Amino acid sequence: MAKTTGNSKVKKKPNADKIIAIYMDYVLENEKTPKSVYKFAKDNEMTEQDFYQYFGSFDGLRKTIWDKFFENSLQVMQKSKEYAGFSNREKLLTFFYTFFEVLTANRSYVLYTLKEHEMPIKNLEQLKTLRKRMKNYAKDLIQEGNKDKNLKLFKQNEMVFSEGVWVQFLFLLKFWMDDNSAAFESTDVAIEKSVNTVFDLFDNTPLERVVDFGKFLWKERMA
Q1: Domain membership flag for residue 90
Q2: 30 and 74 housed in the same domain
Q3: What integer pLDDT is reported at residue 197 of this predicted model?
Q4: Which of 33, 56, 79 is the last residue of a domain?
Q5: Does a structural domain hold residue 3?
Q6: Which whole number is the average pLDDT over 67-86?
Q7: Looking at the structure, do residues 49 and 63 belong to the same domain, yes or no?
Q8: Percent of the chain predicted with pLDDT > 90
């Protein structure tokens, strides 16, 4: 509630989450990004100083939104008592399931912001911070798994695995964007098959899952 002094009201300054919510709503309502911080702040009853207290630019704000998606996913997973006891494979599956649930809850914004520019590389610039966070998450999973392996021969390469997880995410993101199935069931299947494939490759097990995954992709593409 706003504080009052006599007859005058002192407005509560918006925090980072509030500014993000206002920005996302602006983009969806106007189907465009704001032209300037000054106009955006003025139209939403805040000052430029309120905005710059948390973000250096709209580009910084957009990167933070993806970072928030990541943080929200981690918080949801870590609330589960079972998560800590999951295998690395199960943890990565849970992460992708949860992350895409968060994206689905914000699908209209995500689709707009990832298709805003004609050049795909321009749209992906906002994912730079997310890329670091996701790769670090993947590295932590592998480090945890490597602790139980005495021989260096059987230890998995952290850099290769983390980069693989990021490439996997980009594939799943594009798949989800194009997914027209009810409740995005096809994306759930793609997540399961792709995660199992990645771990099977790293564990040097037979490649039946790779073939299975390839058949799935072909079937979805032709559908």
Answers
A1: yes
A2: no
A3: 83
A4: 56
A5: no
A6: 95
A7: no
A8: 66
Which domain does 120 fall in, by range? Answer: 57-222
Domain count, the chain: 2
Band of pLDDT at residue 144, cut at 50, 70 and 90? confident
Q: Which of 7-11, 23-27, 110-114 has the lowest mean pLDDT?
A: 7-11
46/122 same-domain check = no
Alpha-carbon dihedral angle through residues 99, 221, 163, 100, given to the nearest 10 degrees: 0
The answer to the question of residue 150 being in a domain is yes
Does residue 1 form part of some domain? Answer: no
The closest alpha carbon to 117, from 165, 62, 38, 57, belongs to 62
Contacts of 126 (CB under 8 A, 6+ apart): 59, 62, 63, 65, 66, 113
Residues 68 and 157 in one domain: yes
Q: How confident is the model at residue 206 (pLDDT cuts 50, 70, 90)?
A: very low
What CA–CA distances, in Å, run from 154 to 146, 149, 206?
8, 6, 16
What b-and-e string marks burial along 60-72, b requiring 16 or more CB atoms within 10 Å of the CB?
A: ebbbbbbbbbbeb
